[in-house]
Write a structure and sequence with these properties.
The protein is mainly alpha-helical and 309 residues long. The chain has a domain of 213 residues: Ribonucleotide Reductase, subunit A, CATH 1.10.620. The protein has 12 helices and no strands. Helix 3 packs antiparallel against helix 5, helix 3 packs parallel to helix 7 and helix 4 packs parallel to helix 7. It is globular and about 60 Å long. The model has no long low-confidence stretch (mean pLDDT 94). Bound molecules: fe (ii) ion (2 copies). One fe (ii) ion binds next to helix 9. One of its GO terms (molecular function) is oxidoreductase activity. This is Ribonucleotide reductase. InterPro entries: Ferritin-like_SF, RNR-like, RNR_small_fam.
Length: 309
């Protein structure tokens, strides 16, 4: 047997955790109260909230549709030469793709029932997909994996997988999505405060809590694989990871905020920015800060960059 139960790796442990935690169902949330709450959002607030939700709705669909080549690329690697078991990781990703489908399902239902639309494009205009890497680009990443599988070169496969995991788990999930959750938290809290309530859009918050729990596993697994690939090919860190991180920093962390006006009174974008820097540092630390040339200390490098601009 390829799977040895007595030798369970990180991906297998996360898969087992996912079996226990991942039993929630988007259909089980009652959305009536959320519908009522939604009516009390002003048009500007609705537009701003929908902008973030649209990024998620499209993004969850994009990650669902582009994950399969990761499994195929792992399968094309010589398992016995790798510092981790590619089969256990394939099992993990099989679970992840189901979870991403469920996240898409949640947003699809929520748009239909609460927002009364299936449109995302009007809310995304001028938004994040026009500023640096977005989930739209995951289709190119998937194509790169398929091309590397075709050529079958081990080092190329590791490098391409490294870039793919960094894009998907390292940037999209660990940075972009988590920035989105922080944004939801603030918008919902500020709205509840204004209305003199403990919580608004309660079902949304509960269901998003489940999505976040799933994503925490996806991110942890992604970081672990990024470290394993660095074990297999140490130069992948400075050849692939670092330039991708640099691009993200340039396009997002150092770029001007995309929303000039915040309809939610008291919204604190700077607080979110600081948290995102910490998330990036966490990823770097997990891979091994001393493996990096420039981004071992994210905050210091950012300050250097800002001083130079
Ligand atoms: Fe997701
Ligand atoms: Fe995910």
């Amino acid at each position: 047997m390829t799977i040895d139960y007595s030798d369970r790796e990180k991906s297998y442990e996360l898969y087992r955790k996912g079996k226990r935690e991942g039993t929630w169902d988007p259909d089980e949330y009652d959305l009536e109260r959320d519908r009522e709450d939604w009516e009390s959002f002003t048009e500007a607030e609705q537009h701003r909230f929908l902008a973030t939700c649209s990024g998620f709705y499209d993004g969850e669909e994009d990650v669902t549709r582009t994950l399969a080549p990761y499994m195929m690329a792992l399968d094309a690697l010589p398992n016995e030469e790798m510092p981790f078991d590619t089969v256990q990781e394939e099992m993990y990703l099989a679970q992840q793709v189901y979870e991403e489908a469920k996240h898409t399902d949640l947003f699809s239902r929520y748009f239909e029932t609460v927002f009364d639309t299936q449109e995302t494009a009007p809310y995304r205009e001028g938004g994040y997909q026009e500023q640096g890497y977005s989930t739209d680009d995951l289709y190119d990443t998937a194509d790169d994996l398929l091309a590397a599988i075709d050529r079958g070169d081990r080092t190329e496969l590791v490098y391409t997988l490294g870039e793919a995991y960094l894009n998907y788990m390292g940037i999209v999930e660990a940075q972009l999505a988590r920035g989105g959750y922080l944004s939801f938290d603030q918008m919902i809290e500020l709205k509840a405060e204004e209305m003199g309530r403990d919580v608004v859009l309660e079902s949304f918050q509960e269901a998003i809590g489940k999505v976040r729990q799933d994503e925490t596993r996806h991110i942890e697994n992604g970081r672990w694989i990024l470290r394993q690939l660095a074990e297999a090919e140490p130069a992948v860190v400075t050849d692939v990871y670092e330039p991708r991180i640099e691009e993200y920093v340039e396009n997002r962390l150092l770029a001007d905020p995309i929303y000039d006006e915040q309809p939610f009174d008291g919204y604190d974008q700077e607080k979110i920015g600081k948290q995102l820097v910490q998330y990036l540092q966490d990823t770097v630390d997990y891979i091994g800060a001393d493996r990096f040339d420039r981004y071992g200390d994210v905050r210091a490098t950012l300050e250097e960059r800002q001083a130079a601009d």
